[in-house]
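User: tokens in, sequence out, please.
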């Protein structure tokens, strides 16, 4: 091999090394940015989830880490999909269960709810996590559109009695919306079914062992 060829090989090797180093640096940078972003997204989701939870059960009443005190249930009356149950406790005693998401078809698509039931069977409250109901009609179930959903807080299967857990049009106590009865009817039914499930399963739900690896950041 003559000197010229050796020189050329050296240059090729140098170029390849420089390219390789930059390639590795670039990949590392992308990986780092991705993991930092994923972490931030997970943190945001966790915060958003907890903000909703604390609307249903005041933060200062909860003494356990309810994101680590989770079970997953199969409950066809609440959802076709598995439902997570987050267990709030106060000094080790049952305080409330957060069912999320309770889901059923609305008028235009699935309605996903977060339902908080206190240990005494009263509702801490209900929030809509997502829906596809029609703007101006069914979307009044959304807290940002009307305060209808707040009307569940403090209610129980004794208030009103079970036969009155319906919209007014069906002989119950809950308002329907003008031109939109289906959506509130579905939500009232979903909340009633959650209360019935709670009444039947409460002891078991509080007693089951917590999941080993609950999601660190539940989806909102
Ligand atoms: C385009 C369109 C969108 C509608 N969106 C909804 C809706 O989001 N929620 C709902 O309850 N009803 C919706 N309705 C009205 C229902 O068809 C129904 O008339 C209404 O819920 C009243 O039900 P009722 O006859 O049992 O009282 C919509 C109707 C139309 C034509």
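Assistant: Sequence out:
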């Amino acid at each position: 091999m003559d000197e010229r060829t050796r020189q050329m090989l050296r240059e090729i090797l140098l170029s390849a090394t420089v390219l390789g180093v930059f390639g590795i640096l670039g990949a590392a940078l992308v990986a780092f940015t991705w993991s930092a972003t994923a972490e931030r997204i997970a943190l945001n989701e966790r915060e958003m989830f907890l903000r909703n939870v604390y609307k249903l059960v005041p933060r200062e009443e909860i003494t356990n880490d309810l994101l680590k005190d989770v079970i997953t249930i199969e409950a066809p009356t609440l959802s076709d999909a598995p439902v997570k149950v987050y267990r709030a406790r106060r000094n080790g005693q049952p305080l409330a269960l957060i069912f999320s998401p309770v889901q059923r078809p609305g008028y235009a698509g699935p309605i996903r709810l977060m339902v908080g039931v206190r240990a005494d069977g009263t509702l801490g409250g209900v929030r809509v996590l997502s829906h596809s109901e029609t703007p101006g009609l069914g979307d009044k179930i959304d807290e940002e559109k009307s305060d209808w959903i707040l009307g569940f807080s403090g209610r129980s299967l004794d208030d009103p009695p079970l036969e009155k857990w319906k919209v007014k049009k069906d002989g119950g106590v809950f308002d329907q919306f003008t031109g939109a009865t289906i959506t509130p009817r579905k939500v009232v039914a979903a909340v009633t079914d959650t209360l019935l499930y709670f009444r039947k399963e409460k002891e078991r739900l509080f007693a089951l062992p917590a999941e080993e690896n609950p999601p660190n950041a539940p989806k909102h």
